[in-house]
């Protein structure tokens, strides 16, 4: 029966790949996949209900423009933002401050398909503060929240950032952030695999010298 001959270096590389694969197959696998993805959306909104609602939903879909990572298939597709309700807090120096709450999911990426099974949704953390500069428009905070698929499986955390002041039209950037533990785990796996491979290479060299 022929014997299988495994070179130490090849074995080290194989083991390194196995370690990384196992790390990314943990409970944070989805976060690792979506983490680092980004897309840009442009669209419009209106102030309705006596000024207490910022209506994104009734203004139609926003358009996905530039994308990276997992979001790349969503370029030139529709993105729907939900409405935001404003509650007056204070006014000072020409700026009005509101405590605001968005209807969740705040953002829905549709991929322009007839089914919802490939939708990605963003659930925002409520409440948050919005500043109203009158004719100069609104300043939105950096929205934080979680991404999930249609079935409710969490894909990771992320942010929605409105670029500049929004006054009837907007430009926003959505970014998915990998979980710190996922990044640490993947980095540790690669480092361990590299160290293990170097150790095996040294042993291989010693064996060759003796021969």
TrEMBL record:
It comes from the Bacteria. Keywords: Signal. Residues 1-31 form the signal peptide. This is PEP-CTERM protein-sorting domain-containing protein. It comes from Rippkaea orientalis (strain PCC 8801 / RF-1) (Cyanothece sp. (strain PCC 8801)).
């Amino acid at each position: 029966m022929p014997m299988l001959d495994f070179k130490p270096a090849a074995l080290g590389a194989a083991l390194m790949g196995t370690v990384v694969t196992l790390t990314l197959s943990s409970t944070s696998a989805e976060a690792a996949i979506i983490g680092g993805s980004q897309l840009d959306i442009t669209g419009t909104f209106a102030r309705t209900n006596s000024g207490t609602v910022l209506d994104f939903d009734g203004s139609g879909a926003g358009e996905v423009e530039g994308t990276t990572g997992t979001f790349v298939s969503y370029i030139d597709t529709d993105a729907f933002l939900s409405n935001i309700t404003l509650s007056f807090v204070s006014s000072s120096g020409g700026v009005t401050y509101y405590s605001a709450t968005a209807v969740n999911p705040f953002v829905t990426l549709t991929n322009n398909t007839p089914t919802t099974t490939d939708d990605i949704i963003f659930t925002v953390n409520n409440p948050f503060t919005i500043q109203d500069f009158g004719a100069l428009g609104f300043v939105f905070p950096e929205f934080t929240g979680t991404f999930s698929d249609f079935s409710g499986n969490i894909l990771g955390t992320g942010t929605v950032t409105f670029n500049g002041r929004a006054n009837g039209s907007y430009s926003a950037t959505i970014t998915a952030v990998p979980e710190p533990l996922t990044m640490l785990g993947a980095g540790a796996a690669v480092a361990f695999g590299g160290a293990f491979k170097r150790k095996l290479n040294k042993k291989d060299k010693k064996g060759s010298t003796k021969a």
